[in-house]
Prior knowledge:
By secondary structure, the chain is α+β, with helices and mostly antiparallel strands.
Amino acid sequence: MMKTFKFILLLIGMLSCLNCGHLKGPECIKNNKKYGTIRGVFRGNCWNYYERGLSYAEGNCFDAAIDDFQNAIQCVRNDCKIDQFMAPTYGLHFSPYFPHREMGVVFYKKGEFENAKKKLERSLSDVDSERARYYLDLVRKKRIEKEEIESCPKITIHNDCPELVSTSNSITLSGCIIDEFFVSDVILTGAVKKIIRYSWEGAEKKVVFNEELDLPQGRHKIIIKAKNLANKISEKEQKIIIDKLGPILLINMTENADELGKIENQESICVSIYDDSMVHSLTINNQKVDITPQKKITFCKLNQLYGNQIKLTAKDSLGNISHMTLDKNALKLDDNKPNFLAFIWNLTLPPIIPKNPKKKHPSINIIDPEREKESLYHEYEDDFLFKIRIDNENSLLRSVTINDVDLPLNMIFNEAGPTEPHLKGSVLIFDHVVRLNRGKNEIEIKVSNTENYEICKTIIVMKKTYPAFDKKNTLRMYIHDLDIYSNDKEDSIKNEYIPRALGDSLEEKNRFVIVDNDNLAEYTIEGYIKKLNYPTKSIETVCTVKFNGERLKPKIDVHGCAKEQFKRFDLCVEKLTTKILRKFIRRKGIIKNIKGNKIVTNIQYKQLGFQKILTVFDKNNLDNLWNAKIEDQSGKNTQATLFTSTNHINRGFQVITK
């Protein structure tokens, strides 16, 4: 029985070597070091030929290396014919296996660029690897240098227009970059500094970009820069306007005059409405007023036409709205009252009384009737939008600043001029938005007039964080030690440096909490390092990300070349961090539909990457959070759905990736 079993094992070994070429390879000795060696016994398996081919390549015995790589590919086993990150060798053992790719690298070193191109492209058709892309780009550069090709990338922005306008902080900049001789780098500069494509990702003839930008209120300039393999650079500028503010309202009291210039007894209320985005519609006392959209609209004798109680609503062409309720009798200031008032919704701050109350001075009101029930704590939003009213009696406004920055009221001040009488005794109402930092924010408002009187007040706004961003709700990750594959016998079996450095790098980005036990983690990372000593010393790091034990595709691989080993490691950590974070980009959305326990969001499934959990919450009751798993919709171009058994979720609830 034992003899029969040994015979079967021998037969299997002989069959696995069919069509695999000859067992013995040529001798290769360079600088008293023998190449063409493997660990263990050479049995003629495809992985034996592949390992020996790597050794020949390291010794610059290129013809012998090519023969061995070719013999590996020609083995009878189908899985020997394709490149793969982890190929089965014997039993339950696996090993990196890239005969096509490494043959392409050897052809490149020999100067046979056409053969190198074919083999590297074949490898990429089997599996995408950074090392194959790196050497394919080197091959392409040789062709460009030889043919002295002149070309520049062509940048196209979708919905191309001089200015993109949005009423939201989030705006999508999309387009494509085309170059017959391959786009290698794409970056954004200006208001946003962001790398869209790194050179180490490999060049493409067409690069499509779809970048979601978070911009504050105001005008911004974005510059897209693209470089090709010939180091030719193209640039394209895109202007973006974020406008969340309603029209500016300027009210003043004037004395009416008849056609002969005689002064009438009745005072008149005049309102001027300004907006760079055009004043589009107007209602007064719930009556629609027929207007032609323009940047400035003025109405006089409002109290005579509509009475002393006036309710005015103005909307710009983007849909931003300004409201005003005006009482003619309340326009005049009483010198016996405090001369500076600051209100946040229904909260009155202590007034400041000027040292010289008889001096002509402005007063300030900060009001937002839509938030009457709120306090100074402005929770969970990046921008703080509030309304300001400035009452200015018997003098002209000179400037209005918030946090020492002049407000965009130039269209009023420039038009009026320093001696224009219609600003005298006026009331100015406008919106303002401040980008908040986490924690305490101080907002200082200053107003000065032509009587050299300045008044200022600081208000405090606190910004809290989404509970979904709290550390307790952050993704937990465990990183295993990495296996090392190398022909150097002195190499350790495991590598601990990269996992430790990678964990520190990911925690610095505030996206993960690194735990020391895989049972505590939702995500785990495992993988290997392959050390290569030709054409230059480099390492290839390949990681598999798992969610609750489920392998997520594709694998993440990086290729690092540097003279010193730890610099190679650091380069790989930097690249791994970038690639992993791209799979875990924070996405925000809302619930669009609910069907039983199936919830449909407005987030595209393909945007989620490796993210498998969405946090659901009610913006009006942030103490309640639900974490729900996302339904697997691989290969579908659809909106992300998730399942939950709770009955407390409604349409319009917010969702954010955990």
